[in-house]
Write a structure and sequence with these properties.
This is Putative transcription regulator with HTH domain, MarR family. This protein is 61% helix and 8% strand. By secondary structure, the chain is mainly α.
Length: 183
């Protein structure tokens, strides 16, 4: 009779020549070691990305923003179309509308976003000042990030493939979150 593996049993070693980098070894699954490595990569990348966007926006002149504030500002500015709170939450995949609403109020207080009421509905758009900060951010991004990336056609292709994979995985994580919420 074969004994079932329990969480305390060590996993078999990773394949030869494979460097395993995970943040929570106790979560590594024998069915997909790579997913744990990806999750660690997401943690590190998310923190680096958050730090980057805050510092880039600070260099553009807006100093008191959180990563979510920066992302909300960029989304409100996107395609120069007015956005509703629900649309912003949906596109950014944020369930907690109060987080986005708080960012919008903060951005309005800074004079970079304005809200327009039409009946019961409020739509948001960037102000001239907001568009200037976003344009300055774009210039700094081009100089500091894109310049440092030095992307080749092959690297750009790989980045595109990774972006598609991350979007697909976000759906898997959303589905898993719904399943976990029903337990």
């Amino acid at each position: 009779m074969t004994r079932r593996r329990n969480a305390a049993d060590p996993l078999p070693p990773p394949p030869e020549g494979h460097l395993e980098i995970v943040s929570s070894a106790h979560l590594v699954s024998p069915k997909s070691r790579e997913l744990s490595e990806l999750e660690y990569g997401l943690i590190v990348s998310n923190n680096a990305f958050s730090r980057w966007i805050v510092h880039c926006m600070k260099a553009a002149g807006l100093k008191e923003l959180t990563p979510l504030d920066v992302l909300v500002l960029h989304h409100v500015n996107h395609r120069a179309r007015d956005k509703r709170l629900s649309d912003i939450c949906f596109i950014m995949n944020v369930e907690d509308t109060h987080l986005i609403n708080y960012s919008l109020k903060k951005l309005q207080g800074l004079g970079v976003v304005e809200g327009t009421r039409s009946g019961k509905e409020v739509t948001y758009a960037t102000t001239d000042a907001g568009r200037q900060y976003v344009e300055r951010y774009r210039q700094i991004r081009e100089e500091c990030l894109i310049g440092a990336l030095n992307a080749t056609e092959t690297l750009n292709h790989d980045i595109g493939e990774l972006a598609r994979l991350l979007r697909a995985l976000s759906g898997v994580y959303d589905q898993a979150a719904r399943a976990a919420a029903s337990l």
